[in-house]
Design goal:
By secondary structure, the protein is an alpha/beta fold. It is 46% helix and 20% strand. It contains nine helices and seven strands, in the order ααααβαβαββαβααββ. The protein has helices at 3-31, 35-49, 51-60, 64-69, 92-98, 110-122, 159-169, 189-200, 209-213; strands at 82-86, 102-107, 128-131, 144-150, 170-181, 218-224, 230-236. It is globular and about 70 Å long. The structure holds S-adenosylmethionine (SAM). S-adenosylmethionine binds next to β2.
Length: 237
């Protein structure tokens, strides 16, 4: 190896070492901080300021994350109706729904709302988007035929308040549809390790079934995705 190659090798090693140090530091900090604080001080600014990078997760996983969201669409009415998306993120699922339904959405991060609005506008689609909290939805009781939320519920410290709101805004006979990561009931070890990692990073690995049943919904649950670490829970009011 010539001098130039050796120098590049050193820079690469230095970069990799620094990256490992930063990741290690983040994990160490997370393990010493309660989840509510991690959500507020880490994830909230990340979702807001790095919204434009969020889609690279889809790109890096070869579209897998989007494929994991899409089963939610199977439980929506065949055509027409009002659908609310809670935590729409960068709006990939939202634009698909906006082609078939009257849609509305709420997300805590203005950065995410910016990306979703731009995505809708480019495709000539419309939605009533709001910046707000899943625990205080700015819509009247019973307005929607369905409420959809993908990979959001695990980020919410107050699950009861969020579920109360999602159930409140759906009409009798309508559905609350939640897709999220969690423990796999097949006891898969990789799924368990992933769930532990998400928990260390501030997420809440929940089973939404008892939360829905406690509010009188009729519930179905299915696990899928790699090692069964993703689930969909559908409650009919
Ligand atoms: C992991 S992203 C998921 C985004 C998208 N639904 C998806 O499937 O990729 C979580 C999203 O939930 C939003 N979020 C987090 N807490 C929220 C809250 N309390 N109310 C509304 N949105 C929230 C974040 O801003 C972010 O856009």
């Amino acid at each position: 190896m010539n001098d130039h190659g050796r120098e590049r090798g050193w820079w690469f090693a230095l970069g990799a070492g620094l990256a490992a140090l930063v990741v290690g530091l983040i994990i160490w900090l997370c393990l010493r901080t309660d989840r509510r604080t991690i959500q507020r001080l880490f994830w909230k600014p990340v979702y807001d300021r790095l919204a434009r990078l969020y889609d690279s997760v889809d790109w890096l996983t070869g579209g897998t994350t989007h494929r994991l969201r899409r089963p939610a669409l199977r439980y929506l009415p065949a055509e027409g109706g009002r659908v609310l998306e809670v935590g729409f993120g960068t709006g990939k699922l939202h634009v698909e729904m906006a082609k078939r339904y009257h849609v509305a959405g709420v997300d805590l991060a203005p950065g995410m709302a910016y990306v979703t609005r731009r995505r809708l506008t480019r495709q000539g689609l419309r939605s009533a988007l709001a910046i707000g909290n899943a625990c205080a939805l700015p819509w009247p009781t019973g307005l929607f035929d369905a409420v959809v939320s993908t990979f959001v519920f695990s980020a919410l410290p107050d699950a009861d308040a969020a579920m109360d709101e999602m159930v409140r805004v759906v009409r009798p006979g309508g559905r609350v549809i939640i897709v999220d990561a969690g423990e796999a009931s097949n006891g898969n070890r990789i799924a368990h390790l992933l769930a532990k990692t998400w928990t260390a990073l501030g997420d809440y690995m929940r089973d939404e079934v008892p939360l829905m049943e406690a509010r009188g919904l009729e519930v179905e649950r299915e696990e899928y995705g790699p090692w069964g670490c993703v689930h969909i829970v559908v409650g009919t009011r």
